[in-house]
Amino acid sequence: MPLSTNARTRVVHLVDSMIVGGRERLIVEQAAVRGPESTSIICFQEVGVLGEKLRAEGFRVDVAGWGQGLRASFAWRLAKLMREHQAEVVHCHHIISHRYGAFCARAGAGFRRRTPRVFLTVHGPLDLPNGPRGQMNRRLMRRTQVVTVSKEMRGVMEQWLGPSDAPVQFIHNGISPAPYLNLPAKNAARAELGLPQDAFLIGHIGRIDWAKGHITLVDSLSRIRIQFPKATVVMVGDGPLRGEVEKRIRALELESNVILMGERHDVPMILAALDVLCLPSDKEGMPLVILEAMAAAKPIVATPVGDIPEMLDQGRCGVLVPHGQLAALDRALLAMAHDPERAAALGEAARQHMIGNYSFEAMVAAYEALYRGN
Question: For the chain, what are the domain ranges?
């Protein structure tokens, strides 16, 4: 339900592009609650499919043209757009957008109202720079309201920043369980998606890059299919590592056991079709797909990185596999295949934990309080 008019601070989100990803989906969901009168988006590089979706719903989504011309020219274009959007709050979603967004907001020239307040949400692990660039980022961030979605990253940011004007805040991600509560039966979902009915489907949903463990999962599949030939991995997403993943699939002769679905907009339906979600990541913050799988009552196998252990209640509603222990990952996936009753119980426990602890409404309320300066 949209927020009441008197709760609406004019917020402009700065993001690289509105591709299909966790942070971008959160922006879309938050925008839907706030409405186009109080929310707009400036993309640094491209609109992306989710940006086009927001445009179709009446939101203003602009592209500032990162990489087009000198950096000074880009800063001028960005400042002009921020003035046009009448920003009261500039909410940045990665470190480069913050660097330029904070500078342009504090330059302040031409803003009709007071200088916009600047927020930075840290959605995952950062490579925090040192040297002159790191010092500049640190100075800008010390006057920024920094928010992390991971308690681990809050500690990292507090140590890196040192004393700052605004203490680092922690607001965990939240989703509405509604789209995941009345999903079709597994066989019906597979028929809808054209997925094999008799396979043991292991899902991986997320951007295909080095941190997400796609190749680790492919390697695990090559071993577990010896004991469980019907094991099949379904990968949803795209990214810079896709070519390497495809190369590994061919090298291990797994073409008939891995389904690459690319970017999708029907994650609830895909989750309904899966037997288990596996996220063997090297690094994470608070992955949205874990919450989505929990809401869909799917059993989860994941590495204990970022806030995943807390999300899975320290392993009480999911299986945590030590990072780098490949045999343990194999055993966890085979256990799910051989004991569907235990898998179902873990999935239901995950749903109840998610509903009780990761409310979308609580997340939105926490951000609104910060936007209003409370």
Answer: 5-174+359-371, 178-357
